[in-house]
Specification:
globular; 5-stranded parallel beta sheet; Oxidized Rhodanese, domain 1; alpha/beta; about 15% strand; about 150 residues
Length: about 150
């Protein structure tokens, strides 16, 4: 199975933001590390009355995959009453870890798992900075730090 078949697909940050804030059953999951959430920031959905689920795909600082990611997220989604048919949008720094998370949750039976292309910070710019070329921050979507 190719990646394009293993999950619902890639969406840009603006489409993901619109989907998550305009539909009550749609969920945003940030799969970055605790360090990234704390020091880089997280999406801010408070204006829509929602929050972001923060579930690490890889641990910090080792970078090893979190072995119970699917179980942890599945339990939280179940606790919140989120059905396996609800759209789930996955976000990381640049779109790689979130794609892996979308594939894993699709394999676990969730039918609408989307990867947010370019993630929170996007690719490195020619001058060596993230957050200025593409991604959540570069598009000026709401976020908080600390």
């Amino acid at each position: 199975m190719s990646n394009s078949m293993a999950y619902a697909g890639d969406v840009d940050v603006e489409a993901a933001f619109h989907a998550v804030t305009s539909s009550q059953d749609t969920v945003l999951v940030d799969v970055r590390t605790r360090a990234e959430w704390t020091f880089v920031g997280t999406p801010d959905l408070r204006a829509s009355g929602k929050d972001v689920l923060l579930v690490e795909w890889q641990g910090f600082p080792a970078g090893a995959a979190v072995p119970d990611f699917v179980e942890t997220l599945s339990a939280e989604l179940s606790r919140r009453g989120v059905s396996k048919a609800a759209p789930i949008y996955f976000l990381c720094r640049s779109g790689a870890r979130s794609m892996s998370a979308a594939i894993a949750m699709t394999s676990a039976g969730h039918s609408q798992c989307y990867n947010i292309a370019h993630g929170f910070e996007g690719p490195v710019s020619p001058d060596g900075h993230r957050g200025t070329v593409a991604g959540w921050k570069a598009k000026g979507l709401p976020w908080v730090q600390g």
